[in-house]
Amino acid sequence: MNTQNLLKIAKQFGAPIYVYDAETIASQYTRLTNAFKGVGSLRLNYAAKALSNISILRLMNQLGSGLDTVSIQEVKLGLMAGFKPESIIFTPNGVSLEEIEEASALGVQINIDNLSILEQFGSKHPDVPVCIRINPHVMAGGNSKISVGHIDSKFGISIHQIPHLLRIVDLTKMNINGIHMHTGSDILDIDVFLYASEILFDTAKNFKNLEFIDFGSGFKVPYKTGDIETNIEELGKKLTTRFNQFCEEYGKELTLAFEPGKFLVSQAGHFLAKVNVVKQTTSTVFASVDSGFNHLIRPMLYGASHEILNISNPKGRERYYSVVGYICETDTFGSNRRINEISEGDILCFKSAGAYCFTMSSNYNSRFRPAEILWYKGQAHLIRERETFDDILRNQVDVKDLFIKPKPAVVK
């Protein structure tokens, strides 16, 4: 998207606001499918948690994607968006047996990541096909909070527990139709990913009725100019060769599955915020915007870096600013950034704001969550209205009658 279109959207719909470019999403989807075009059967299951607006889900469905879900609510959103149940995989963590049974009753692919639920579900529903999430004990990911394949992770069944796993499968006679792993987000080292894949291949040999092997995702995307990213083409070439070889060894063609989220939507997202105040202190120039970590928490939560542009003054002289929000806590989007000269009322654009941005927003400080726009075929489409004060109060129950002072007793 160009700067003028973003400025028009900010003027028409107001700021702060999220804007997503459908063309970028489609381009990333095509890039990933092309990287694995040598695989006979490929399935991309979009990770709904990255950006779960129902219009985005409908776009993914139109592109031919499946859906990766982690909650029963995401499963229901996917069905509402038009996904067929068999194209949805349900990969929760730490949820109840009842939630897994509810998802199973809807006809989606179940993926179980712990022995307790595996035994309970297998005992009650031995005929329901189940995928098993393995923890390969391989450390991958750009931050400890998003690295999920290591030995101390809460995710997956440890490879050291394979004998116990096989015992449960044998005793329950359950049908295992898939094997899954996810090592973490922001994967850069392809060799580490391929090493973890070998562990998954070795595990897969224990199961005779597999239909697919799911390698998760976590591919790194660039968040600023010159940033490094996963070489998806190189990974595609190497993993395709090894996967096809394994299928020959296994004796049947399996489906290779991935669960891309950030890879598909991150770079498609732009977050626009208006500058309220430019404040000079003894050592810093602050640009305070009409937003905060209630709308975009990644910088404060992960130390994530989003490139910030002043789209109101793209040719202005560059100066150093610390861009901060209006939340009543330390609330910093970026420190000492070189940005074209900022004036009060300018619109700043936070790039790569498509993944884990709006979906992690909140009403902290009783602020409204922003609107969302889908830029599709040259037009801006409102896909979420900005919240109002009624939304803040919607589910609150005002027990004001509890606090009515009793009338003083009348002494006769």
From TrEMBL:
Function: Specifically catalyzes the decarboxylation of meso-diaminopimelate (meso-DAP) to L-lysine.
Binding sites annotated in the UniProt record for pyridoxal 5'-phosphate: G218, Y356
One GO MF term: diaminopimelate decarboxylase activity
Keywords: Amino-acid biosynthesis, Decarboxylase, Lyase, Lysine biosynthesis, Pyridoxal phosphate
NCBIfam families: lysA
All residue ranges annotated as the Orn/DAP/Arg decarboxylase 2 N-terminal domain in the record: 24-266
Self-association and partners: Homodimer.
Cofactor(s) in the UniProt record: pyridoxal 5'-phosphate
Family recorded in the similarity comment: Belongs to the Orn/Lys/Arg decarboxylase class-II family. LysA subfamily.
Chain positions with N6-(pyridoxal phosphate)lysine modification: K49
Name of the molecule in the record: Diaminopimelate decarboxylase
Organism: Flagellimonas spongiicola
EC class name: lyase
Gene name for this UniProt entry: lysA
Pfam families reported for this sequence: Orn_Arg_deC_N, Orn_DAP_Arg_deC
Enzyme Commission code(s) on record: 4.1.1.20
Orn/DAP/Arg decarboxylase 2 C-terminal domain segment(s): 18-354
Signal peptide annotation: none
Domain of life where this protein originates: Bacteria
HAMAP family: LysA
